[in-house]
Amino acid sequence: MDISFEKIIRSVSLALDLAEISSSENPNCEKNISNVNFSSHKFYNHSKRTTYIALKLAKVLNLSNNSMKNLYIASLLHDIGAVNSLNASHTSSEFIKQHCIQGAAITENLPIFNSVSPIIHYHHENYNGTGPFKLKYDQIPIESRIIHLADMVETLYEENINAFKQHKDIINLVCENPLFDKEVLKAFLSIASKEMFWFDMENISFLDFILDNISPDIDDKLDLKQFESFAFMISDVIDSKSSFTAKHSRSISNLAFQVSKYVGYSEEKCLKMKIAGLLHDIGKLAIPTSILDKNGSLTDDEFSIIKSHVYYTKIILDSIEDIHDISYWASSHHEKLNGTGYPRHLTASELSEECRIMGVCDIYQALTEDRPYRKGLSHEEAFKILNHMTSDGYICEKAVFQLNGALKKINMKQSIK
């Protein structure tokens, strides 16, 4: 099974934009442009628009094909380290430095294109040496210098204002500061002088071909094992958003894998179930941390927002195209046999065995995990609740039996050791 690496990265960049939109703290509010308040910037399509600007600059600067590819991947992922920093109370300068470090560390683990790590590490360096790591001039990778300016222009851009009403102010603000490579700035002035550039900025949110037309060809594919490696990396990003769920995705993944082995699925399907477990909560990146970390009961409105996470899981994973089965299993883990689940209210006839297993694994893991407001339940207590849920027609009795059998098999192996 081969999976498009470009589609994977584009889907993750969508998830990252959702994460930044959902952040109430908006730690990007200070970016070294004096007298400008960035707190109103909503980060809609931030990764996509930053990537578009970066690629336009790179074409003027005649970057090599290899540099263009690295720039493309790095631009889409440049804020991947931000998710880990959104919970903390910190100044903007601390946020900027920390998310660069974390972004570099995360992307070092990419199964391919891990050479983008240093580009992301230094994408907030100022050309005059006043950035977080004090590099200056040619010490900063050219791709980082490009992303730095592209990121700034995107953050200055307001999606709810017509481009013709703001483009002169953006150009003036960028030109007044000594933060950017003069050649990169000259390239920006060249592209910013054309109305087409600003029309593209205005319409990129719903016209995907705008970015597609200038993106380098990324033909690389990941096999299922490489995709598993990638999913492990993303699961850490997902779980880092909430202080409640340090290893939740990995635990669900392991349970789903063990139950799949117990049932007798093929090696490929077992691996797919593991990946579905790792990615089942990727939609939680779109949920505000204040709701995810609330130490107490949720209001009806807050619960409605929480429910949307499985919708976003489906949207993000469906955009990869090559993994519709994984997306279906991952995004159905809150559905119930009697149609009372969410978000699609699927019924028994619409829920495959894999979906039922994933749902039962998620409930068991949630019940047995420690949370700040309660201690995790014992195995026996958890299964008492699961059995009641089967009696009430919510979850699959067979899937509960399969989970119990798999757990007994694990415990038997551990006792022998």
UniProtKB/TrEMBL annotation:
<feature type="domain" description="HD-GYP">
    <location>
        <begin position="223"/>
        <end position="417"/>
    </location>
</feature>
<dbReference type="InterPro" id="IPR037522">
    <property type="entry name" value="HD_GYP_dom"/>
</dbReference>
<dbReference type="InterPro" id="IPR003607">
    <property type="entry name" value="HD/PDEase_dom"/>
</dbReference>
<dbReference type="InterPro" id="IPR006675">
    <property type="entry name" value="HDIG_dom"/>
</dbReference>
<protein>
    <submittedName>
        <fullName>Fusion HD-GYP domain and HD-hydrolase domain</fullName>
    </submittedName>
</protein>
<dbReference type="Pfam" id="PF13487">
    <property type="entry name" value="HD_5"/>
</dbReference>
